[in-house]
Amino acid sequence: MKNLLLVTCSIVALGAAAPAFGADLAAQPVYMAPPPPPQVAAAIYDWSGLYIGINGGWGFSDATGSTVGGQIGYRQQMGQAVFGIEGQGNWADFSGSNVSTTFPLNTNRSTTDAFGLITGLIGYTSNNVLLYAKGGAAVTSNTHQVTSTLIGAQLASTDNTRLGAAVGAGVEVGFAPNWSVGVEYDHLFMPDANVNFTTAAGVVATDRIRQDFDLLTLRLNYKFSPPVLKY
C-alpha cells in the first residue's frame, strides 16, 4: 500500500507539472536565419558623350616614321551598339623614297609632316570594352624632293596637300570614370598623283608619286560627361 501511495503521488505531481513545463517550452524564443542580402545588379558603362584625347604611334608602308596628335569626337550608345563621329589631327615625320618612273636617274623622296582624319564610327560594347570600325576622309601635308642619283644633288622640291580616304579598327577600354585607353590601326589610301617640280633653271618636270601608309597608334581619351551606371 505504501508503494502504491508513492506511485500515485508521483503521477499526480508529474501531471501538475506538465502544463507548466509545456508553457515554459512554448515561451522559448524561436531563432530564424537572417534573410540573404539583396542582390545588386552589376553597373554597365555607357560610352555616350563628348570626348577629347591624345594619340601617338608609328606609320609604315610607302612612308615610315613616328606621329603624335589628338582627337575629338562624340559617341552615342544604343543598347550594345555604339555610333560616333571623330576628327583627328597629327604631326608626323613619315618619309619614303623611290626611283623616279619618269626620270630613272633621279630619286623621289616624299615626307608627310601632318595629316588629318574625319571619320564615322560603328562599334559593339561589352560593358567597359568597346570594339569598333571606322572610315572616312583623310588629308596629308607633304613635301617632295627630286635628287640626282649620279651626283647626289637636290634638283627640285615642292609642297602639296593630298586628299584620300581612311579605314581602321580598334579596341578601347574604360579603366576609370571618364577615362579610357585603346589601340587603333588605320590605313590611309592616298591615290597616286602627278606632282610638278620646278628646277632652279625654271624647268618644270612632272612625276607620279604613290603615298599610301598604315598607321598604328595608342590612344588616351577623356569623356566630359560622367559614365552613366545603369542597373
Task: Tell me what the structure shows.
By secondary structure, this protein is mainly beta. It has one domain (51-223): Porin. The chain contains one helix and ten strands. The chain has an eight-stranded antiparallel β-barrel. A hairpin with a 3-residue loop joins β1 (49-61) and β2. The longest helix has 25 residues, at 2-26. The radius of gyration is 39 Å and the shape is elongated. InterPro entries: Beta-barrel_OMP, OM_autotransptr_brl_dom, OMP-like, OMP/PagP_B-barrel. Belongs to the Omp25/RopB family. One of its GO terms (cellular component) is cell outer membrane. This is Outer membrane protein beta-barrel domain-containing protein. It comes from Bradyrhizobium retamae.
